[in-house]
Design a protein that fits this description.
By secondary structure, the chain is an alpha+beta fold. Helices cover about 30% and strands about 40% of the residues. The protein folds into 2 domains: about 35 residues, N-terminal domain of TfIIb, CATH 2.20.25; about 100 residues, 2-Layer Sandwich (GMP Synthetase, Chain A, domain 3). The protein is elongated and about 50 Å long. The relative contact order is 0.16. It comes from Plasticicumulans lactativorans. InterPro entries: KH_dom-like_a/b (IPR015946), OsmC/Ohr_fam (IPR003718), OsmC/Ohrsf (IPR036102). Pfam families: OsmC (PF02566). This is Putative redox protein.
Length: about 140
């Protein structure tokens, strides 16, 4: 897996994935950024939420659950001093669907947290990573 990050202007960068996708990142205005994109640490949280949400959806679909929507809300806290690593990360899943089995949803979230989501498991080496879920019947 490869990635490339290139300076565009000022403190704005474009990150390119090995699969050919690009995203703009920027620093905050207080350090010279123009607020044109997410901060790199925000990208870590977005990636973690995406990694875990994909796991949860794959598991629920294999379980033949009729999921109509999946939202992963990610909230984190960082250390006060450098390096300002994440110290706490919480992923909350809101799973919508028809006749969803709570056991299947609970199992999918647990499997992602404990076995499949390499991003949250890796970040769990420095942060307390927790997971919760809610089920919405549609």
């Amino acid at each position: 897996m490869k990635a490339r990050v290139k300076l565009l202007d000022g403190m704005t960068f474009v990150g390119e994935s090995g699969s050919g996708h690009a995203v703009v990142m920027d620093a905050s205005p207080d350090v010279g950024g123009r607020n044109l994109g997410p901060r790199p640490m925000e990208m870590l949280l977005i990636g973690t939420g995406g990694c875990s949400a994909i796991d949860v959806m794959l598991i629920l679909r294999k379980s033949r659950q009729e999921v109509t929507d999946c939202i992963c809300e990610v909230e984190a806290e960082r250390a006060e001093t450098d390096p300002k690593v994440f110290t706490r990360i919480h992923l909350h899943f809101v799973i919508s669907g028809r006749k969803l089995s709570e056991n299947h949803v609970k199992r999918a979230v647990s499997l992602s947290a404990e076995k499949y989501c390499s991003a949250s498991i890796m970040l769990g080496r420095t942060a307390d990573v927790t997971h919760t879920y809610a089920i919405v019947e549609v």
